[in-house]
Specification:
alpha/beta; Rossmann fold; 10 helices; about 15% strand; globular; binds nicotinamide-adenine-dinucleotide
Length: about 325
């Protein structure tokens, strides 16, 4: 059985990927500092190691046990926090990734998948945006994620290593679904709105609400990650994971309100100035994922939202 190390495996995205890895028979070690992740989300069949990707000795203790692949998902995932504490953002996202790469080299790990982000495209000129569009980050988070992604691929392409490191970066768009934090106001607009409705708080929209995002459901994303793990067609590639359909924040607000039996007329929706680093339009071209992974997202936004709300109402 192959042993897979999943950093950030107690978080929203990581914990779903761990569940699917376990289902497919992998031996999984989760490495997470529980800063935003929750140990209760970690599958019982996976081993949990509390540790920080900033600490080389903590990482080394896990790598020394022998791992066949690393899914590096741990990260600081908030654009707003990247502006509030740029040093922490850089430390976790970029330096943390460099630490992972150093361990991969030291222990000759042959496979690495990295959690990259659509934010690296910034306000893309080509929409839907393909992977070969020029990166143009407009916030600090996107800079640290893009730097980390480049460290991953430049390392994998080094000719001086005495082993082959096959790397893949998955540039995820706006992932949503069960276990996304309903109480963290800094990341995940859909979950923030659902949390607002559950607690009876007003909804706050920055800018005019006509900015749009490509919302992709967590189960679709997890399937892509696990399908990519042993697929040589994905080696050396960066791959968008979105749906190819975008929704404005106003539309998202309306469908969340509707799911709770409200409209704008019956609920408080407040508009605020745009925040630093906000992007106007974000939409994936998913041709590459279709071609290399035979992957197609299957969850429609209304249904995925209904599932997320059912989970949220369950008191999570
Ligand atoms: N949610 C999205 O839409 C989205 C889109 C693109 C990329 N990403 C990236 O995917 C990854 C997971 O995001 P998420 O939405 O699941 O967020 P999350 O906050 O739920 O997950 C991040 C996980 O990393 C852990 N972590 C953070 N810092 C750590 C450290 N120093 N050492 C060890 N563990 C640490 C957290 O405890 C948490 O479990 C992040 O790297 C994020 O940048 C997320």
């Amino acid at each position: 059985m192959k042993r897979i190390l999943v950093t950030g495996g107690a978080g929203f995205i990581g914990s779903h990927i761990v569940d699917l890895l376990v289902t497919r028979g992998y031996d999984v070690i989760v490495f997470d500092n529980e800063s935003t992740g929750k140990r209760e989300y970690v599958n019982d069949a996976a081993e949990f190691v509390h540790g920080d990707v900033g600490e080389a000795t903590e990482l080394s203790a896990v790598f020394a046990r022998g791992v066949d692949a690393v899914l590096h998902i741990a990260g600081q995932a908030s654009i707003r926090l990247s502006f509030a504490d740029p040093t922490e953002d850089l430390t976790v996202n970029t330096l943390g990734t460099i630490n992972i790469l150093q361990q991969c080299i030291a222990y000759r790990v042959p496979r690495l998948l990295f959690a990259s982000s659509m934010t690296i495209y910034g306000n893309a000129v080509i929409v839907p945006t393909p992977e070969d569009a020029a990166p143009a980050p407009v916030n600090y988070y996107a800079v640290t994620k893009y730097a980390a992604e480049r460290y991953v691929h430049i390392t994998a392409e080094r000719k001086d290593l005495d082993f082959t490191l096959n790397a893949t970066s998955l540039r995820m768009f706006n992932v949503y679904g069960e276990r996304q934090s309903l109480s963290n106001p800094y990341q995940g607009v859909l979950a923030i709105f659902v949390g607002n409705l559950i607690r009876g708080e007003p909804i706050n929209i920055h800018s005019d609400g006509e900015q749009s995002r490509d919302f992709v459901y967590i189960a679709d994303v997890a399937r892509a990650w696990v399908d990519a793990l042993e697929n040589p067609a994905t080696y050396g590639q960066v791959i968008n994971l979105g749906t190819g359909v975008d929704s404005s924040i106003n539309r998202l607000c309306d469908i969340v309100l509707k799911a709770f039996g409200h409209t704008r007329a019956s609920y408080s929706v407040n508009y605020h100035p745009a925040q630093p680093g906000d992007m106007r339009r974000s939409l994936a071209d998913i041709t590459r994922a279709k071609t290399l992974l035979n992957w197609q997202p299957t969850m429609a936004l209304d249904e995925g939202l209904a599932r997320t709300i059912a989970w949220a109402r369950g008191g999570q």
